[in-house]
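User: Structure please.
Assistant: Input sequence and predicted structure:
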Amino acid sequence: MPDSISSHPDPDLDSRRAAWRAYIPDHTRVVFIAEAPPPDDRYFYYPESTRHDYLFLELLRVLYPELRTNGTDYMRINKPALLRRFATDGYLLIDAIEGRIALRKPALRKRAISANEEDLLNRLRILGRNDFVAIPVKATVQDGLSQLAKSRIGSRFVHERIPFPSTGQQTNFRHKLSRVLETLAQTP
């Protein structure tokens, strides 16, 4: 399969949009910016995801330390309630690229993110207020967004390079994100 942003119709786009909108907080405090939806049913906001949902599992374990002692099955069974808690607490996850992408090379992924900045900014406008903290999840998101776009996303954009929590990066993800959140908690 050649590297490309999906050029064919995305049959799941409407269901992903509906799932995302269902969990938009009343007041968003923190927006996590991921790269793009996975190529299957593992979308962060799909309550029925049952495999390879590393971002959901690890992100919630960092935000809610008591979940670290709960098994993966517990978290998956309770995913709808956990997503509601995530939203109630003012958290939101959004993908830098709304459609699925089939780009393997990081340089191409960064270019695709850069090319989709305006779309990301438009999708963030649904929040109304721009007083949230933005935290990119994955180096390609951090590197792909221009300084201008970063200055227009939220009241503060975190510049820490946080890896995606898979392929052995889970511990590094937890450590770096925990450090960012601790710093934010100490900053007025």
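The chain has one domain: 17-186.
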